[in-house]
User: What shape does this take?
Amino acid sequence: MAISGTGYGIQYAGEYTLKKLDLISSLDRRIDLTALTTEINIFENIFLDTLTASLMVVDTADLINNIGIYGQEFVEMEIETPSLEDFSHTLTFSVYKVGAREDANAGAALYELSLVSPEFLLNNRRRISKSYEGNISDIVEDALVNPLHIQTEKNLYIEPTKGIRKIVSPNVHPYTLIKHLAMEAQSLKSSSPHYLFFENLVGFNFVSLQELYNQPSLGEYKVIHAGELKENNTINVEEQLKTVIDYNITGNNDTLTNIKSGMLGSTIITHDIYNKSYSKNTYGYFDDFEKHDRIDTSPIYSDVKNIGKFTDARLYVNPTSTTTDFQDAQHYGTSATSNQLSETLLHRQARLAELGSAIKVQMTVNGNTTLVAGQKIIFNKPSNSEIDVKVDPFYQGEFLVTQTRHRFNQPLRKHEIIFSAAKDAIPESKE
Assistant: This one.
């Protein structure tokens, strides 16, 4: 059986090159962990603000006693798919926990090192007590690169926001400030209020769902029967990189949860304490669907049962105290125009709920270092129908990759990705 060429220059699907895997002790001693590590896992999630990772170590050198591993060390790794040097990832993690030790064999101990991005630990040690005036996107950048705050050197993907804000950060952690600003941010390009803040393998991202949906997809991942060969009795590695090894349907519209979360309808009351007045804004699923694009063209729900009339299902209260000179006592927004929660909160929370509880699938594929959380793929689930329908009408088309687990098996030299993908619309109406 031959293996056809791919242009990638790899010998088999899931091959990877581990160029470096070093442990740096608190005393600045450097130890190569390549031969001692059986498995590397790296986790991404578009709903989380940090990368995490783990190493399974078979310790034959008694590192814990010889150099001391206490949860304040660093791990440096460099990993890539062969011939994809542009997608080589050089990563530094902080060790924050050493798992329980088990006897593996004579003279060896098995344990897990739990890792997290150093920026996350730094975030928990620093606070921002500062006033800002400018775009939210500029404020987010300052929180990430300022030497007094996070001071990251990683790539930043920050979508420009519209409007000038006067913000006072009331002695909070940088990530706390950023996540609050994500609730008010609106895209300069699309006016989308659905901002996310997350870290993936390529850097930090402060982007709207609209921006993620507008990016090109990585192509179609197909379900192909195991051992399927080409006519010339070859296996195409490039195709195998887009082959779904296994998949599970993990979500399919929990309507009760969607009602409670405000996905189908909600209300926010803005209470002005100073002027003794209030205003009310409502959100409706179908009204919003006409205003903001989804990953596909048609809503998951139909309105035959007045499902869009659920504005009282979830209630938010936004207190403010606007004086006659338009100054607000709130710390985060100091002017009447700066606090946009009444306009953005309902839309943002509903859209995140759509991704969290609607159409979701988990897949296992052969790994490569180009696939990261926040990208789009195409997946067409084979239909289980007995009639002549080849593709499931719900589980087809474009999906957003929401979380990944990059699993690197050292003994087998095999990279697999277990990832979750979701969509908040379907290609065509159920009718």
User: Anything to note?
Assistant: The CA atoms of residues 21 and 33 lie 6 Å apart. The longest strand covers residues 398-409.
